[in-house]
TrEMBL record:
Keywords: Cell inner membrane, Cell membrane, Membrane, Transmembrane, Transmembrane helix. One of its GO terms (cellular component) is plasma membrane. InterPro entries: PqiA-like, PqiA-PqiB_transport. This is Paraquat-inducible protein A. Pfam families: PqiA. It is found in: Cell inner membrane. Its main location: membrane. The chain crosses the membrane at residues 48-72, 92-121, 142-160, 172-191.
Length: 207
């Protein structure tokens, strides 16, 4: 049984359970005074908007240079993929693997995962509740690693400052990539996970 079936609403601020009052147009938490809803208003629309924007920015994030390493006055702009290839060619396979996973696989998985989750909930596709909730939790957990590339660039830009000898400059691709990471994190936050349970009757998993 869902909380809403028992006439209860949860506050997203303090997690207090409140008795649902259908006759009240705007209901507030009895503990902290925050607005409570049976479901977050326009959750699917907002999440789709953030996800589509992130998917559009994901193209320049991978095609445009993410940083330029200057050495002795010369530098070669690198995209995420060309940077991974350079690391592999220089024998730094572990670092290349970390960058590839954090900068290519994780954002791709988040975009595809959130899209599948939204589609399955909105269209009542035959995906079990257990599969949906595991996917949602994994997307939330893995999101923190998406900023690894941006942190590395920020540290290099701050540390590697030797004038004409050596320097690191961020590229426009870094801005697009950071935007993708932030937008996917916001998409995961705006999605109301309670929607996963709203069509359990159409799923085979009733546990």
């Amino acid at each position: 049984m869902r909380a809403i079936d028992a006439g209860l609403l949860i506050c997203h601020e303090c997690h207090q359970l409140n008795r649902h009052q259908p006759e009240v147009k705007k209901q507030f938490c009895t503990r902290c005074g925050a607005r409570v809803h049976p479901r977050q208003p326009n959750s699917l629309v907002r999440t789709w908007a953030l996800l589509i924007t992130a998917a559009i920015l994901y193209i320049p994030a991978n095609l445009l240079p993410i940083m330029t390493v200057n050495s002795l006055g010369k530098g070669q702009p690198d995209t995420i993929m060309s940077g991974v290839i350079s690391l592999v060619e220089n024998g730094m396979l572990p670092i290349a693997a970390v960058v590839f996973i954090a900068s290519i696989l994780v954002p791709t998985f988040k975009l595809v995962g959130i899209g599948l989750l939204l589609y399955s909930v909105q269209r009542h596709q035959p995906m079990s509740v257990r599969q949906r909730i595991l996917m949602y939790r994994f997307i939330e957990w893995i999101g923190r690693w998406s900023m690894l590339d941006i942190f590395v660039i920020a540290i290099l830009v701050a540390v590697v400052r030797f004038g004409s000898l050596a320097s690191v400059e961020p590229g426009i691709g870094a801005v697009a990539f950071a935007s993708v990471v932030i937008l996917t994190m916001l998409a995961a936050l705006t999605f109301d996970p309670r929607l996963i349970w709203d069509n359990t009757e159409s799923d085979d998993d009733h546990e």
